[in-house]
Amino acid sequence: MFGSVMTGGTAVALAAALLSPGTAVEERPPPGSVAVELRTVNGSGCGVRTSLAVAPDYSGFITSYESSPARVGVGSRPGEARRICQLALDVQFPRGFTYAITGTEHTGYARLAKGATGQLTVRHYVQAVPSWPTRTHRFTGPYDDVWETADFDDVGTAEYAPCGERRLLTLSTELRVDAGTSDPATTTSELGLNDTGSDTVARYRLAWKRCPAV
User: Fold this and answer.
1) What is the β-pairing status of strands 97-112 and 188-192?
2) Helix (H) / strand (E) containing 65
3) Fewer CB atoms near the end CB (10 Å): N or C, the chain?
């Protein structure tokens, strides 16, 4: 499934509205009843310095981590054409509720030579329930700009975690670069999640609902 990609000033102008609350009425768990803990960090695309913050009203959360770009061509090393980061989260919430991720937002940059391509793939899924959506964003060289992606699902049709069970939530972010018809002996192509020198920040919107009475 493909989402939207915005570049440069458009991304900056719309960033504040990307994760605004939806119009659907939903019942959220009571205050003080939800916690999200980071359990594991894996992959060549993220380092050990990883953190997360949950919105006070449980409408979403933000992850922050040090990331490495995907790169091919001059100055690159074997294996750098693909970078993946997987975060496993323990979402703790009251019995009788369940949740879904209904929105994601990522920012980054691309410096692609003519003929090269880049790809961002974003997935999130609950343990043993791998059918949750995959989002793919593609970039084609020549490309030298920052970008922002935003993907949203309708609250009524979103994939919710199984009721009555507590399973780990996995967030997967993958970057790929392909030299294509560019010359990797004379050019460098790169796709990354941050271009400011600070940690990568990704935003996730949460939707809640009550489980059916048993």
Assistant:
1) antiparallel
2) strand 60-67
3) C
Q: Which amino acid is at 168?
A: L
Distance (Å, whole) CA 108 – CA 7: 9
Q: Are 158 and 100 in contact (CB under 8 A)?
A: yes
Q: Residues 159-178: pLDDT tens digits?
A: 899 998 889 999 999 999 99
Please give the DSSP secondary-structure letter assigned to residue 15. Answer: G
Question: Residue 164 contacts by C-beta under 8 Å, 6 or more apart in sequence?
Answer: 95, 211, 214
| Total residues found in the chain within this entry | 214
Residues 6+ apart with CB under 8 A from 34: 54, 58, 91, 92, 93, 94
How far apart CA 180 and CA 178 sit, in angstroms, is: 5
Residue range 62-78, pLDDT digits in tens: 999 888 999 999 999 99
Please report, for residues 97, 103, 114, 168, 189, the alpha-carbon distance to residue 38 in angstroms, rounded to integers and kept in the order given: 21, 19, 39, 10, 32
The span from the CA of 149 to the CA of 110, in Å, is 13
Q: Are 170 and 161 in contact (CB under 8 A)?
A: no
